[in-house]
Amino acid sequence: MIVQICVEKAAATDETQQSVAFNLELINFKSIIVEYFFIISWDEKQDSMSSRNSTDFGGCESERKPEDCGVDDRPPTIAAILLLVLGSFLKGCGTVPCTTVGMAYMDDNVKKEKAPMYFGIISTSWMLGPLLGYLMSYSFLKYHEDPSTAPGFGPQDPLWIGRWWAGFVLQGVLLMVCAVPFALFPRWLPGRARATKVKEGEEIHLTGLWAALKRLIKNPIFMLLIIYDTFWFYGGYGHNMMLPKYMENQFRLSASEASILSGTPSNSALMVATAIGGYLISKFKPNAKYLTGSITVLQVIRAIGFFILMIPKCEILQMTNYGLDEQGLILEGPCNTNCSCTTNAFTSVCARDGKNETIFFSPCYAGCHGKINETFTNCSCLDSYGLEENHVTEGFCFDHGCWTQALVYTITLPIIVLIVNLLNVADQIIRLRCIETEDKSVALGTFEAVTSLFALFSMFLGGVVDSACLVWENSCGQTGNCWFYDITKFNYLMHGISALFTGLAAISMFSMFCLSKRMNDVYKEGEDI
């Protein structure tokens, strides 16, 4: 909201393009801060890597070197977290003017009947960013984060950390270049009169901002639109946030494979749907009632789509255990009690004997005492599960049908995305046409502020999905990442919660449909001043 005051003032004083340019540089500064995070934590990661390389075997050892839990390592991590928080804050400050004032600037400079087409073009370009991001992630995550160190294991290892920071370098360079032409834009594009005029010497005060906010609060369509977009965001964001992790665990993919399969097809479909939708709305000009009614139907289809996505799945992967407690699976049993095993690193091994197969969390929990290439030998825990062999192989047990299921999911998801996002542009049209012209910049900023505030609820979604965790990382007495999920529960929670919020979004849009007669012609050209 603090940033919104500056945004509203910039829009009202004709400094729109300078505001956008400045904030692009602000986002660029955020990328630099994230790079510093990588630099200050480099030494700590090198120490951790050397520790990993010194204990490559990971089998059963009666006397294992205790973890180094000294407090001297912690300050760099805390500093890194603080820098990430600062970087995210600056990114938020820089993004708001681009998505609010920038849209208002464009809307004021085009004919209203052509606005849907331009909204479609801009929205499509926004979708291009995540698409390129997934492609970059796929490329960069195949390489280790430290270019000067050979980790001794590959991307399939759960401990692998790809070159995540490289994308921020490229992002910073591109934003720096894009900010220059934005700063050179005229205050008002030639040939277009200004939709609103600020009198000479008039300034924007907090009282004017408060009056605009009161008008927006009393606008039922605007408030319902905020509720709709909040539920819509939860329905989509919760799914997108957990999708790479879900595909990695459900279909047994590497991090880079999960990234490319979860992001590229669906984002490509989203771009196509937005572009087609913008063109169709611009050509046929459906009224507000038709738009809101159609969006309601599409959201119902979207909710059904989440249930359809529950169907593709692999055979359930069973991990050997000795029961459950409040922490999850009990991995320690009579055969590995004296092995000093820990869960600070997930190095799964597969035990297969004919049609019977199971996985162990690590060769240590399998009670293995030797290793030949990728095979761990002399494993004492296999007898307990009726397996005649006494060796296990590195990695998950291979499922021939799993890749097919991954392809089915990857094909089904973009088809659903393509159908249900055809009217994305209509959301922006309604947002700008259900309010007074003078409230446009305030409305857009308020909309972003409120939806961002409620976005904090996404942490709850992550917590709900983590309730499906069966094995947690435990290092120095502290709980870390989840290593292994109850994938069936993960499936139902992720898709079920997304379907629930999408259903609530459909109800909100249906309420707008009932009030759509209050909206004027959304394509009517405003009076030029």
TrEMBL record:
Domain Kazal-like: 329-383
A GO molecular-function descriptor: sodium-independent organic anion transmembrane transporter activity
InterPro entries on file: Kazal_dom, MFS_trans_sf, OATP
Transmembrane stretches, start-end: 78-105, 117-141, 161-185, 221-238, 258-281, 290-311, 406-430, 442-465, 492-515
Main location: membrane
Keyword field: Cell membrane, Disulfide bond, Membrane, Transmembrane, Transmembrane helix
Membrane topology of the entry: Multi-pass membrane protein
Region (Disordered): 48-70
Signal peptide range: none
GO cellular component terms, A-Z: basolateral plasma membrane
Positions with biased composition (Basic and acidic residues): 61-70
Superkingdom field: Eukaryota
GO biological process: sodium-independent organic anion transport
Subcellular location as annotated: Cell membrane
Protein family (similarity comment): Belongs to the organo anion transporter (TC 2.A.60) family.
PANTHER family: ORGANIC ANION TRANSPORTER (PTHR11388), SOLUTE CARRIER ORGANIC ANION TRANSPORTER FAMILY MEMBER (PTHR11388:SF76)
Protein's recorded name: Kazal-like domain-containing protein
Protein species of origin: Oedothorax gibbosus
